[in-house]
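Much of our argument rests on the idea that a fold can be written as discrete symbols. Part of our work consisted of pairing the sequence of a single chain with a tokenised description of its backbone. The amino acid sequence and the backbone structure tokens for this protein are reproduced below.
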Amino acid sequence: MKKSPKTIFACQSCGYQSPKWMGRCPDCGQWDAFLEGRPPAGGSVIAGVPEGQRNRPVPIDAVEMTDAERIETGIPEFDRVLGGGLVTGSLVLIGGDPGIGKSTLMLQALHRMAQAGHRVLYVSGEESVRQIRLRSRRLNTGSPNLLVVSEVELAAIIDMVAAEAPAALVIDSIQTLYNSELTSAPGSVSQVRESAMRLMLMAKGSGIPTFLVGHVTKEGAIAGPRLLEHMVDTVLYFEGDKSHVFRILRAVKNRFGSTNEIGVFEMKDGGLAEVPNPSAVFLSERAADSPGSIVTASMEGSRPILVELQALTSGSHLGTPRRTILGLDANRVALLVAVMERSVGIHLTGHDIFMNVAGGVKVEEPAVDLGIVAAIASSFLDRPVPEGAVALGEVGLTGEIRAISHADIRLSEIEKMGFTRCVLPAGNARRMTHSGAIRVTGVRTLAEAVDALFRNPARPHATS
């Protein structure tokens, strides 16, 4: 009798494989995530390569060094997030919520590259060429060097790239590609993994920079196996609410640049427009003399960005007060509230606390701890922060104010935006080399910081 083909069950969340169906994935813990499929007939994409064509190990000092120039996309904010432009043969994954602007950014970037004389290719598995043309006309991105095609067959795409030899390639999206050697449906773990592997080998072998557009799950992670993020060179995420006009492009992995850079864009009728001065945009609608509001400086890669922290405290009638935090680490805010009760005597146990970062930005570095404390204290005391004041500093568990990095760069941005006073750690104030007109007040403890901001703001503690 003819043997039935072997089947495997793969988790659609993490890629874990099992010979039988399982209700709960033992690797990632997802329920009802296993789907049945068959392994590829030829095995892995690496299998079957003749032995003479396989790479051989060589001494590292014998590897020839080439200083290849990066390819600029023509969008400075995008180039800076990439680390200065596209690296030859790099594989870049771009994720984000539906409608956030991924396809728009890709079409605009390819258009700028086409205008610079590069021949580029845009492959869409979700739109027809007529639909792409309609969107291109709205974005004014028509160019004879910009080639578009609607295709989902992986082998056809690879043959097309070999024939056209574009300077850059965009796959929109990786979840729509289909490999005929696999029996599973497009978007499954095996299809996404094998398609990404073949595209990675093509990019490294041909030197063509390749963008992969990826959908995200409800939790905000890129759909498909986590292996996809490990295979690519750069992972970029589009952040922001579709109801807001601003979009944040953040690098969470970059083998050729910093992983802390962000690019700020504004969604307009004609597409995404760069925001060269995010600090001015985020502070443009800030209300003066408003309790619960303070400005702080966050380092995003190599540049500081001034953001407004907003806090609201109110008496709670619930047994467990609410803590609603947007744009900040909720655990970090809870820790700082506990430090405030212990070190300053501001008791917030029976109060609801709501916090927000204006503009939809996410701030995670500990240098904004003092700003968080100042915003909560301002709302609780119903006293606005003194006009023109900015707070910086990391808060320790014992209430001490620890020094922060890049204090000089932050102060330069603070002074440029018109602020006149900055409360920051005494350790930074002693080493300050900034000689501007801004008045610097150094504080050692949280009690000193609250006293400097709310009780006796005219009295400096350790002014440089």
In short: The first strand starts at residue 8 and ends at 11. Residues 189-206 form the longest helix (18 residues). Residues 42-50, 457-464 have pLDDT under 50 and may be disordered. The chain has three domains: 1-39, 71-276, 281-455.
